[in-house]
Amino acid sequence: MTAKPKGARNKRSQGTDVSPASEKGPNSEPPLSLERIVTTAVELLDAHGVDGLKMRQLADRLGSGAMSLYWHVDNKEQVFDLALDSVLKYCGPPQSVQSQDWRGDVIHMLEDWRASMLRHPWSASLLPRRALGPNILGRLELLSKTLSRAGVTDADLNVAIWSLWNYVIGATITRASFDLSDDDRAAAQQRLTGLSEQYPTIERSRLLMDNDWDGAFRKGLDFLLDGLAPKQ
Amino acid sequence: MTAKPKGARNKRSQGTDVSPASEKGPNSEPPLSLERIVTTAVELLDAHGVDGLKMRQLADRLGSGAMSLYWHVDNKEQVFDLALDSVLKYCGPPQSVQSQDWRGDVIHMLEDWRASMLRHPWSASLLPRRALGPNILGRLELLSKTLSRAGVTDADLNVAIWSLWNYVIGATITRASFDLSDDDRAAAQQRLTGLSEQYPTIERSRLLMDNDWDGAFRKGLDFLLDGLAPKQ
DNA sequence: GATCGAATCGTACGCTGTACGAGTAGTCAC
DNA sequence: GTGACTACTCGTACAGCGTACGATTCGATC
User: Fold this and answer.
1) In the structure, what pLDDT confidence band is assigned to residue B232 with cuts at 50, 70 and 90?
2) What is the ipTM score, two decimals?
3) Whether residues B57 and B82 fall in one domain
4) What CATH number should be reported for the domain holding residue A80?
5) Which residue is nearest to nucleotide C20 (CA to C1')?
6) Same domain assignment for residues A69 and A181
7) Which residues of A are less than 8 Å from B223 in CB distance?
8) For a tag site, which of A10, A144, B87, B157 has the least CB within 10 Å?
9) In whole angstroms, what separates CA B1 from the centre of its chain?
10) What pLDDT band is residue B93 in, cutting at 50, 70 and 90?
């Protein structure tokens, strides 16, 4: 019986052993690994979106057969989980670990979070539905610690975290999906012109076309932080 | 050449003509119609989620062949669009059309919006990615009008609308997906216990388990409204 | 050489959305 | 009646999907 490795699947990644792949010919693919699978999956997701990721295509791109993937990965869902978390690494605020400016630290982390997801527009809509990987948990832990340091009581901590999470997720999902379909939006706005008696206000303000996404995000974030944490 | 009706597809629904179905025997299904398709699709989505809606199953449940659906509907995507919009009808705030309490009106509409989506947990994650139907546009128009009445300037209007939209969407998507997987959350929280040195803060606060979703939603909404619209 | 585990992959299966075109029933003109 | 036209239904078929299964290959160890 040959059982797949489950817990220690990424054995190869953590060791410092010399890769045996280097001994192969120059025109042969390196061996499969979790890392190669995940980075290639991210490439394909960036190129073709969530629905555009196919296991066969992923294998093709890696120079292997489709079923070889399943030695390293349980199923397609796990590919999503790994790709998602891999994209959300955070290196912390630039200057220091124990900055006095907790508000700046929170804003930096959340804006970086949003930016990371917008760089990979498939990631935002995936995030709420998938398992929490170490990078996601790391961000939550950092957020939690920073708010705690800022004086948010334990009783309010969870409410504050989830409010911020909700806001970031919602803003990014909307932004990303509207980004993907500029033509659709223009068409929808155009269609509204024919219905101006039904939707006069949103037609006049050209709601669907002209938006300051970044500014709106920052504005709402400020308001939330004003309310959630005591002023300094 | 037999072309499908495109614009006037729902002819049967708007007329007051007597339904010819009543002349049939009691044990035969009523004829297909957009309405029946949509309401049945909503039932199936409620029961099995987004991935659980299959065209064949939908047709079975309607007592017809799978391909008959395609006379009334272009493709499966349109079924999603119609089901989504059908679930988001809004009848307005209870008391009056021109209430003095604009803040109460906005909160009522947004909390009703969230409640409607939570009643159909598949709807929230669908909303940002799909076309805007008349009910969705109606809500946006109402929100727009109310904020305008409350004194929000034209320049700030779009920013305010999108901030609120983002917040509602994010809160509801998160809530709905966490709702769907209570066991997963418990398991994830349990797993965190084994990693308490890495994630001490969110482990101690039991972030993944114990949350006051409704309270957090209302709190954040209040903060946003405080900032977005002038105090009354 | 024999053995064994790790890793690869060809084949096949069940399921999906839907293109195609045949078939049916009702209506209207003559 | 009869033929034409429209509205609608649906059986069949097809390509593409995730992946179960089992055969195969390769390198290390005894």
Assistant:
1) low
2) 0.87
3) yes
4) 1.10.10.60
5) B67
6) no
7) 223-224, 226-228
8) A10
9) 38
10) confident
The nearest alpha carbon in chain B to A125 belongs to B125
pLDDT at B210: 74
> How do residues A21-31 score in pLDDT, each as one tens digit?
333 334 457 78
Alpha-helical segments (H) within chain B: 11-14, 34-48, 55-61, 69-72, 76-86, 102-119, 122-126, 134-149, 154-180, 182-193, 200-204, 213-228
Looking up tokens 């008696």, which residue turns up? A197
**pLDDT band, residue A18 (cuts 50/70/90):** very low
Structural domain range at position B70 = 29-86
Which token pair is A57?
Answer: 């295509």
**Residue A150, in any domain of the structure:** yes
How much is the average pLDDT of B188-216? 89
In Å, what is the separation between the CA of A34 and the C1' of D20? 21
Two tokens at A166?
A: 């909700």
B154 or B22, higher pLDDT:
B154
Of all residues in chain B, the one with the smallest CA distance to A157 is: B205
- A219 and A141: one domain? yes
Q: Please give the pLDDT value at position A100.
A: 82
Which of A171, A205, A223 minimises the CB distance to B157? A205
At B152, is the pLDDT very low, low, confident or very high (cuts 50, 70, 90)? very high
Is B133 domain-assigned?
yes
Question: Does residue A56 sit in the same domain as residue A114?
Answer: no
Tell me which amino acid residue B8 is. Answer: A
Q: Is A123 exposed, middle or buried (0-12, 13-18, 19+ CB in 10 A)?
A: buried
What is the amino acid identity at position B13?
S
Looking at the structure, do residues B68 and B136 belong to the same domain, yes or no?
Answer: no
Same domain, residue pair A37 and A73:
yes
Enter the DSSP assignment of B130: S
Residue A185 has pLDDT above 80, yes or no: yes
For residue A12, give the nucleotide whose C1' atom is nearest its CA. C6
* CATH number, domain with residue A156: 1.10.357.10
**Structural domain tally of chain A?**
2
Structural contact between residues B139 and A188, judged by C-beta atoms closer than 8 angstroms: no
Residue B186 has pLDDT above 90, yes or no: no
CB contact under 8 A, B163 and A207: no
CB contact at 8 A, A125 and A85:
no
Q: Which residue of B has its CA nearest to A197?
A: B141
A10 touches strand C (CB under 7 A): no
For residues A117 and A57, state if they share a domain.
no
Asked if residue A93 is part of any domain, the answer here is no
**A185-188 own/partner pairs: CB under 8 Å, 24+ apart:** A185/A209, A188/B131, A188/B132
